[in-house]
Amino acid sequence: MTSRTARILGGQLTAAVVGVLATALVLGGGLAGAQEAPEAGTGVAEALAGPNTVNSAAIINGSVTGQDVANASLGRADIKGGVAPLFARVSSDGTVLTSKGVTGAQRLIAGAYQIDFNRDIRNCGWFASAANNDAGSAEAGYTTVERRNSGDVDSLEVRTFDASGVIADRASDDGFTVMVVC
């Protein structure tokens, strides 16, 4: 090949490479085909779920808050299991009147009760409150609540006290309510 032929081919090759690069820049928005992120509310989410809707593929974990959900738009069926509170309304004789997630309750001694739940509650928070179990007002008093013992992962002990601070059963139409939130 002569030097003149090499110069002609080299010039044509350079022109071809420059043409390919120019085409990539103009049509692809950049050498790697980069494109700008869509504005909020357009593009990705709409492609996945349609306009004005969102599905799980369009949600980044932890990005949805209570402000993002319309009031009264979610029901109990929408809440993941284990998130809804566990509770019991218990009479002074240890009878469970209403409950969710409670497998049993019993009066241990005067003013002391064991409440058993259907799962491990060690990583949960709990509280109890003296209550009237009928229409009326509860007698004065207070309650304490704690895990039953370190080996028992699903039970609480609730103690009820009269107004003077002495452990005692509540009146027959009174009792307490205990709630566990995980």
Could you characterize what this model shows?
This protein has 182 residues and is an alpha+beta fold. The chain has a domain at 86-181. It is 18% helix and 31% strand. The protein has two helices and eight strands, in the order H-H-E-E-E-E-E-E-E-E. The chain has helices spanning 3-28, 44-49; strands spanning 86-91, 96-100, 102-109, 112-117, 125-132, 141-147, 155-162, 174-181. A four-stranded antiparallel beta sheet has the order 2-1-8-5, with no helix packed on it. Strands 3-4-7-6 form a four-stranded antiparallel beta sheet, with no helix packed on it. Strand 3 and strand 4 (112-117) form a beta hairpin. The chain is elongated, with a radius of gyration of 34 Å. The N and C termini lie far apart (82 Å). Mean pLDDT is 76; it is low at 5-38.
Provide a concise account of the structure shown:
It contains two helices and eight strands.
The helix/strand series, from N terminus to C terminus, equals HHEEEEEEEE
Computed CA radius of gyration, to the nearest angstrom:
34 Å
Across the major sheet, the strand order is 2-1-8-5
- Strand percentage lies at 25-35%
What percentage of residues falls in helices of 4 or more residues?
A: 10-25%
Give the CA-CA distance, first to last residue: 82 Å
Task: Return residue spans where pLDDT drops below 50 for at least 5 consecutive residues.
Answer: 5-38
Helix count, DSSP H or I runs of 4 or more residues = 2
Shape: elongated
* Oligomeric state of shown chains: single chain
- The number of strands is 8
Q: Indicate the mean pLDDT.
A: 76
Largest sheet: 4 strands, antiparallel
